[in-house]
Amino acid sequence: MAVTITGIDELTARINSTHKSSPRTLDLAMNDTADAIMQKAMKEVPVLTGTLRQSIGTDLSQTLHKIIFASADYASKIEYGEPEGGDPATQDERAEPPGPRPYMRPAFQTESKRLNEFYEKRKG
Q1: Is the dihedral of CA 31, 44, 100, 106 positive or negative?
Q2: Which helix (H) or strand (E) holds 56?
Q3: With contact defined as beta carbons under 8 Å apart, do 89 and 15 qualify?
Q4: If exposure means fewest CB atoms within 10 Å of the residue's CB, which of 17, 24, 80, 103 is most exposed?
Q5: Which of 7-11, 22-26, 35-39, 40-44 is predicted least confidently?
Q6: Cα separation of 70 and 48, whole Å?
Q7: Is the pLDDT of residue 107 over 80?
Q8: How large is the average pLDDT for residues 45-52?
Q9: Contact by Cβ (8 Å): 48, 60
Q10: Pick the residue with more confidence: 17 or 1?
Q11: What are the Cα distances from residue 20, in Å, to 15, 32, 49, 78?
Q12: Distance CA 114, CA 120 (A)
């Protein structure tokens, strides 16, 4: 399943431009955006036990490189759905494989706009 992001070329050009003139400011804006994506994903994730929600986090340690992750071993199965037929060891043979219940992609789509807003404010 492909994720399509529109306007990425323009955003990349803006990032490269700001990176050269103000890398610390850009890094702070990226930290803010990554935190917002994480918080939104934690609100959007389906919850049964809370383990998946608790596994969502960020790694902001590198300058201009941010990671938002879900470390639960089944995180991708929730995000993208169970493969056709599912895992026979964990499913009743009569059960349909669960469909995707995205939480990271919607969070990214919604909250990544914060980074673009950062550039819009600086343009003005």
Answers
A1: negative
A2: strand 56-62
A3: no
A4: 24
A5: 7-11
A6: 15
A7: yes
A8: 93
A9: no
A10: 17
A11: 9, 19, 45, 39
A12: 10
What does each C-alpha distance from 109 to 24, 33, 106, 116 come to in angstroms?
24, 11, 5, 12
**Gap between the Cα atoms of 42 and 50, Å rounded:** 10
Closest CA to 3 of 73, 76, 56: 76
Cα Rg of the chain (Å, integer): 18
| pLDDT at res. 1 | 46
Q: Is the pLDDT of residue 59 over 80?
A: yes
pLDDT band for position 4 (cuts 50, 70, 90): low
| Coil, helix or strand at residue 66 | strand
Helix spans in 1-124 (H): 8-21, 23-44, 51-55, 75-80, 104-111, 113-123
Q: In whole angstroms, what is the distance from residue 99 CA to residue 97 CA?
A: 6
Q: Amino acid identity of 92? A: D
Residues in the chain: 124
